Amino acid sequence: TAPSFRLPARGGVLRLSGMKIGFIGCGKMGSALIQGVLAAKVSEPSDVVVFDRVAEPAEMLGTESGIRVAKNNREVVAASQVVLLCVKPEDALAALSGASQELKGKLLISIVAGITIDSLQEAAGAECRVVRVMPNTAALVQKGASAYATGQGVTENDVAVVEQIFTSVGRAFHVKEALLDAVTGLSGSGPAYVYLFIEALADGGVQMGLPRDLATKLAVQTVAGAAEMVSETMMHPALLREMVTSPGGTTIAGLAELERGGVRFAVMDAVRAATLRAREL
């Protein structure tokens, strides 16, 4: 049966203490989610159980955080009301089909790239409720951008649980499954595009005489501050750009070179290429 957690009143906080959460796989993203869940007190350590085929990281996480380390996937599922699947794509369906009996009536949240809700549902069984999520690596520093799609039978409470888990490591957005490939191309692969821009921005500073360490720090803070300005003001990026672009000034000179180099088109094309590759996979 579905977890019997009450939704909060408008503006309230969903309390999920006592909810048993299991993690199949605890690589970088799985570990980030576990740490986020614990830090946000979505669940207490005693309510979290994990299994990973590589024993050492799971045991280390168990020692550091106090969560329970299971002996296999079936033990994780049997002990949990909500199960997060955080394994490699080639291992995902086998992990589920081996625990399909224990998944009956439970919520399965998959962060596995490229495995559709229909495929997950078939492996987990018809009585399992399935949500598919595409997070990104910024979840490791609680600044993640996640998008999720829901399968048949997923309840309002299930959605609230997903929101609570993934907002503990950033922000979460509900989308149709057909859009998850585009999400992969934008926010899933997007951090790499931003890292490349930060590197190039710092290189430009070095070219013009700044020490490498200072140039990197300035580039990082500039990108972080610009992103925060968009987030806090909710103004269109074009308007914020105009605010710092004086006629005949330094900024318009730099922007003209970016436009000459086709930066805008290159970024758009990067999202397109990554989206198409996600569809292939």
Total number of strands: 8
Computed structural class: alpha/beta
What is the mean predicted local confidence, pLDDT? 91
Q: In DSSP terms, counting alpha (H) and pi (I) runs of 4 or more, how many helices?
A: 12
Q: What's this entry about, in short?
A:
This protein has helices at residues 28-39, 55-65, 73-78, 89-97, 117-124, 156-167, 180-188, 190-207, 212-233, 237-243, 250-260, 263-280; strands at residues 21-24, 48-51, 68-69, 82-85, 107-110, 129-134, 144-150, 170-174. It is an alpha/beta fold and 281 residues long.
Report what the structure shows:
By secondary structure, the chain is an alpha/beta fold. Helices cover 51% and strands 13% of the residues. The chain contains twelve helices and eight strands. The chain has helices spanning 28-39, 55-65, 73-78, 89-97, 117-124, 156-167, 180-188, 190-207, 212-233, 237-243, 250-260, 263-280; strands spanning 21-24, 48-51, 68-69, 82-85, 107-110, 129-134, 144-150, 170-174. It has an eight-stranded mixed beta sheet with strand order 3-2-1-4-5-6-7-8. Helix 7 (180-188) crosses helix 12 (263-280). The radius of gyration is 21 Å and the shape is elongated.
